[in-house]
Design goal:
With about 210 residues, the protein is of the alpha/beta class. The protein has 9 helices and 5 strands.
Length: about 210
């Protein structure tokens, strides 16, 4: 059965989310230190990242929890400095991986439907896609805001299939996580491509070369 749709995970598949988060947090800590927070920047960065992983990588409360742990209370001046530093640094790291534009244009030329299935909330998903200037490529965007369960639940995948009006064998799912992306998509009958490095995105073209015309 020919591929009529391609669904992508977002973070670590189309964008280096980890770099964006880490560099933004580094800028936030530098701003906090200038505002009066006393800590070692290198050790502080690891502690802040640990806080994010504990309270939720997309959480808006990580800085507050971090300051409570470091100071015993939330200093509003330092908190505001951190948020400002983070927000000012983040845009420069919201960039698509190499080959993303090439592949998205290739799929559009093939008249293939394109979608996103991500655990990120909708507001942050749209922000990243808009900043990367690729949002117009996507016919369907399924985020954690629209579904009761995140991946590896099959619910987000099923919603995307319904919105695309396609059957699982007609869709290729592309993601970086075996457990959260590849296994659930494959269990539904979708074709899958595991992204280990950004260059793996170019392998998408092979699926179409192998198809019978």
């Amino acid at each position: 059965m020919q591929i009529k749709g391609v669904l992508f995970d977002l973070d670590q598949t189309l964008i280096d989310f980890e770099k964006m988060k880490r560099e933004s947090c580094k800028a936030a800590l530098e701003s906090m230190v200038k505002a009066g927070l006393v800590l070692d920047l290198e050790k502080g960065l690891e502690k802040l990242m640990d806080t994010y992983y504990r309270v939720g990588i997309e959480s808006n409360k990580a800085f507050e929890e971090f300051l409570k742990e470091q100071m015993g209370f939330i200093d509003k001046k330092i908190l505001e400095a951190g948020i400002k530093g983070y927000d000012e640094a983040k845009p420069q790291f919201v960039k698509p991986y190499p080959h993303v534009l090439e592949i998205l244009n290739f799929l559009k030329m093939k008249n293939v439907k394109i979608g996103i299935v991500t655990d990120a909330p909708r507001e942050k998903t749209l922000y990243r896609l808009e900043k990367m200037k690729i949002i117009h490529f996507f016919d369907v965007i399924v985020t954690s805001s629209e579904v009761p369960e995140k991946k590896p639940s099959k619910i987000p995948f099923k919603m995307a299939l319904t919105l695309l009006s396609l059957k699982p064998p007609e869709v290729l799912y592309v993601g970086d996580s075996i457990e959260r992306d590849i296994k659930p998509a494959r269990s539904l009958g979708m074709k899958t491509l595991h992204i280990k490095t950004p260059t793996d995105l170019k392998k998408i073209k092979r699926f179409f070369k192998l198809q019978k015309t």
